Amino acid sequence: MNEHRNFVLALIILPFLWLLPQLVDGGQPESLFRNAPRARQKAHLREKNGEKFNDPYFWLRERGNPDVTRYLKAENAYTRHVMRDTEAFQEKLFKEMVGRIKETDLSVPEKIGPYLYFYRTEKGKQYRIYCRTKDAPEAAEEVLLDENALSVGKSCFNLGAFNISPDHKLLAFSTDVAGEEKYTLQIKDLSTGKLFPETIPNVSTEVEWGNDNRTIFYSTLDEAHRPYRVYRHALGDEPSKDTLIFEEKDDRFSVTTGKTKDDAYLYILFESNTTTEVSILDANKPSGKFRLFKPRVQEVMYTIDHHDRSFFVHTNEGAINFKVMEVPDDNIATPSWRELIPHTPGVRIDEIEMFAKCMAILERRNGLQQIRYYDFGKKTYKDIPFQEPTYSLWTGENHEYNADFLRFHYTSLLTPETVYDFHFTSGKLELRKQKEVRGEFNTDDWQAERIFAVASDGARIPISLVHRKGMRMDGKNPMYLTGYGSYGSSSDAYFSSNRISILQRGFIYATAHIRGGEEMGREWYLDGKMHHKMNTFTDFVACAEHLIAKGYTSPSRLSISGASAGGLLMGAVTNLRPDLWGTVVADVPFVDVINTMLDSSIPLTAGEFEEWGNPENPDDYAYMRAYSPYDNLLRKAYPPILVTAGLNDSRVQYWEPAKYVARLRAIKTDKNLLLLKTNMGQGHAGPSGRYDALHELAHEYAFIFKTLGILHKSAGEN
Q: Do 119 and 185 fall into the same domain?
């Protein structure tokens, strides 16, 4: 009885323990909501390359320490309290955003073999429902996988692999219910709806079938969450009997599995940030031995596809912006390689998409994406034209090798996501679907622009903007400016119906296409990484200064936002020019650069050495030390800042944003808001449900309105 009574008392008391004053310096429980939480300090000396650095919040890395959990909960409680005057506004924003989307909707069906595959969404449900029908009139729908049913009782749900067997009878799929990006693989019999008994944990998102319909290839993760082993699994076998095919020893490389478009070859891709290697196997002989296509060479990247009796290789060997080579499949030795598409200065070949009759080539010219296609029979090239000043596009569902069309998705700052089929034979562009925007939105009311800022070294930095037509550029407009600038990832212009909520309230939305991405070609990326990383940050500052000088906005009206490596950008530019920003949002920010890159046990660290450098090297350490946001916080005034984190984030560990906020709160001299919001059951991408994600965005927008001092200035809002 005493044990039961103590247990009940514990249940009552535990939720309030985080209020204890020893966890929040100088505060009594009743004053917690008037005074921001302050994490306790504990000396921790870092000695590296001749520098001694005291890190008093290093202890926040102790995931199992109850004090850490209590501190994070205290920060969440403080954030809720501070933002409670925006709750009605948040709900209004949320309802607006939901009201613009077609909640019950259907994707464009894709014909694969005898079936049409598609997914649909239903009003009130967070996730997708994957379906198919026979390619016949009035064929009945067959539900293959309902994410909503799988997510019941889960605070997080992410679907990884979704791969139908070649005979269309089986489905290999994987799920993650913690946000850690560690997936569990299962196989479903689509004729009975039953699952096979085997369950394979700790896999990546890539799974591939052999052409025998019973052999599966998958990769597993090491302790640092790196896909490093490839296994072969026979349907119905115990996973413990699976055959290890490869193990990658180099921590910089991850391994993924795939298949060429014509289903002729299985491949394993070994990939670091700068180097790749491929091994291949006849997909009709999945029990055979993989053979090396071309040995890895540092800084050389290549991928392959297959057509007729040749491999086509997309590579940067001797071609900084990539070229395409053709290789006979019966003689893949290097001397037999023939150049099909040569390297062209200023034109970046992003990827190739193979079909029986044509090959689609996705390129970047002058920072804008283009598509052209090569006709294998006529041996001619033709372009697919696009007219808007700034936009983005990507290939869509193109599994059918013998299809006579390329499916691609197109969007711009003014055009909702649109699905097109471009027919190779007729040259006609067929509109298949455009996302419906409900409510009051007329494209003619808005204007998109592409302008350029000039960096200190003379580089011209593109900026994409959208705003109401006729808006006066008098410096009084609030602006939402975002950027990324890492990993060669390009921040191309796209449409968001959610963005309408701030545009209609007078905001200008802008994206800075700074170095570190590949918007302007491979050199653009190389000029924004390693010992050129400062270009990323100074480019962003230059864009902001240009926008201010041209009257688009002013510092007090300028909000900036970035996530992950974009959060690093936010931290770095806030240190560089705190006077330039009216408010800052840093989502899951990579801000503790030195400590993270010194710890190889943290997921992804070793593979990141080629992006940021290795701080064990004195030169790399000195360069990274000069911009690492956490290490460069100073006793000075900072703008209002909202920081988010995910407790289960495997890419940016929760303690990076937590440490950043704790140290900044202790050192800054201003009284501006500094908030930390930790999603306690989520990972890097935040809430996984579509409605939950909108609540998160409404919170971010409300913070911006509140801290820019315009929350109450929109008619009818409070």
A: no
For residue 679, give every residue at least 6 positions away whose Cβ sits within 8 Å of its Cβ, in sequence order, or none: 644, 645, 646, 647, 686, 687
- The DSSP 8-state label assigned to residue 210 in this structure reads -
Q: Could you give the residue numbers annotated as active site?
A: 564, 649, 684
> Does 126 share its domain with 177?
no
| Residue 49: inside a domain | no
Query: What global pTM score does this model have?
Result: 0.91
Residue 246 lies in a domain: yes
Strand partners, 377: none
Residues 242 and 186 in one domain: yes
Residue 22 sits at the vertex; the CA angle it makes with 17 and 27, to the nearest 5 degrees, is 95
CA-based torsion, 23, 26, 31, 36: positive or negative = negative
- What element of type H or E holds 12? helix 2-13
Q: Phi/psi of residue 213, each to 5°?
A: 65, 15
Q: Do residues 175 and 121 both lie within one domain?
A: no
How far apart (Å, rounded) are the C-alpha atoms in residues 595 and 51? 13
Q: What are phi and psi of 310, to 5 degrees?
A: -135, 150
Residue linked to tokens 């003619």: 444
Indicate the DSSP class of residue 298: T
CB atoms near residue 58 (< 10 Å): 18
pLDDT of residue 34: 55
Cα separation, 443 vs 503, in Å, equals: 12
pLDDT digits (tens, 9 = 90+) for 322-358: 999 999 999 998 888 999 999 999 899 999 999 999 9
What DSSP line would sit under 541-584, residue for residue? HHHHHHHHHTTS--GGGEEEEEETHHHHHHHHHHHH-GGG-SEE
> Is residue 135 domain-shared with residue 167, that is, in the same domain?
no
Same domain, 141 and 158: no
Could you give the number of structural domains in the chain? 2
Helices (H) and strands (E) in the chain, counts: 13, 38
Residues in the chain, total: 718
Q: What is the pLDDT of residue 22?
A: 35
Of 154, 104, 98, 124, the C-alpha closest to 694 is: 98
Cα distances (angstroms) measured from residue 14 to each of 8, 17, 37, 67, 107: 10, 5, 19, 12, 47
Shared-domain flag, residues 186 and 197: yes
Q: Amino acid identity of 717?
A: E
Task: Residue 115: give the domain boundaries.
Answer: 105-153
Q: 259, 294, 316 — which closes off a domain?
A: 259
pLDDT at residue number 23:
37
Report residues of the chain scoring pLDDT below 70: 1-34, 712-718
Q: Of 301, 215, 303, 208, give the one whose Cα is nearest residue 263.
A: 208
Asked if residue 173 is part of any domain, the answer here is yes
Q: Is 480 inside a domain boundary?
A: no
Kindly report the CATH number assigned to the domain that includes residue 184. Answer: 2.40.128.660
Residue that terminates a domain, selected from 153, 188, 219: 153
**Which bin fits 439, alpha (ψ -120 to 50), beta or left (φ > 0)?**
left
- Do 188 and 134 lie in a common domain? no
Q: Is the dihedral of CA 625, 548, 498, 491 positive or negative?
A: negative
Cα gap 529→534, rounded to integer Å? 8
For every residue of 17-62, DSSP letters joined together read GGG-GGGSTT--GGGTTTS---------EEEETTEEEE-TTGGGG-
